[in-house]
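Reference record
================
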Amino acid sequence: MWTRPVQAPRDDVGVPDSVLQLTAIILLLRPFDIWWVSPFVLGAACLSLIVRSVRRSAITWLALATLAGVRIVAVWPLADNHIYLLAYWCLAIGLALGAPAPLATLAASSRWLLGAAFAMAVLWKAVLSADYVDGRFFRVMLLTDVRFADASLLFGGVTPDQMEQNREFLEPLPEGAELLSPPPFVEPRRLRVFATVGTWGGLTLEAVIAVLCLSPVGRIGEVARHSALMLFCITTYALAPVAGFGWLIATMGLAQCRWDQRALRAAYITVFLLVLVYAEVPWTGVLLDWTLP
C-alpha cells in the first residue's frame, strides 16, 4: 500500500489521460508567479504531458499539490481563488491514483470539491454580501472594471461618454470630500437589466450546481449536473476574466464522466477549448466594433 504513490499505475488504472493532460495544461497556461516555485511546476507539468508514466504517477500530483500550497502560503492572503481549488484538485488526483478504485475516487472527489466551492460561493453572495443580492456589485463593476467595458457598451446600452462620466461619478473621494460639480450619472435600463440577469442568473445556476453535486442523484440528476456545469462555463466565462476557474470546472466535470460516455467527455473538452478562446479572443470588443456606426 505504501509503495503505490511512488509507482506508475497500470494502464487500466481508470483515470482518463485527458483529465491529467488538461490539468497539466492549466498549470502551463496559468503558471505560478513565484520565481522559485514556477520552474518546478512548469517542469512537472511539461513532463506530465510528454511522459505517460510521469502523469500517471501519484507522486507527481502530490508534489504539484504541495507546490501549489507553497505558492498560497508565499503570497498569503493574496492568492487567487482558483489556486486554492487547483491545489485541492492536484491533491485529489494524487490520492485517487494511489487508491484501489482511481476513477470512482476521483469522480467523487470532483463532485464534493465542486459542490463545496459552489455552496460557499452561494453562501457568500446570497447571505454574507448585501451588496451582491441588491445588484450593486454588478451595477458598479460593469461601469468601473475596464475588463467589462466592452460588454457594458455592447449589452448595456451605455455610450463611451456616459461610461467615462459614470466612472468619474463613482470615483472614491477622501472621507468627507464632495465634488462641487459632480458629473451626471446615467444608467440605461438595459444596463440595469444586464446587471440583474448577471446577479440572479449566476446565483441561481451556482445554487443548482451545489445541490446537484452534494446530493445523491439518479441518472436524470447526473445529466442535469453535467448540463449545469457546462452551461455555467459557457455563459460565465464568456465575460468573466477568470479562465482558470473555467478550465478547472470543465476538467473536474470531465473527471466525473464514465469511460462509455464518449460524447459527454468530448463536450467537456470542447467547453475547455471554448473557455480558452474566450480568454484569448476579445469577442465583445470585436462585436462592438462591428455594431458601432
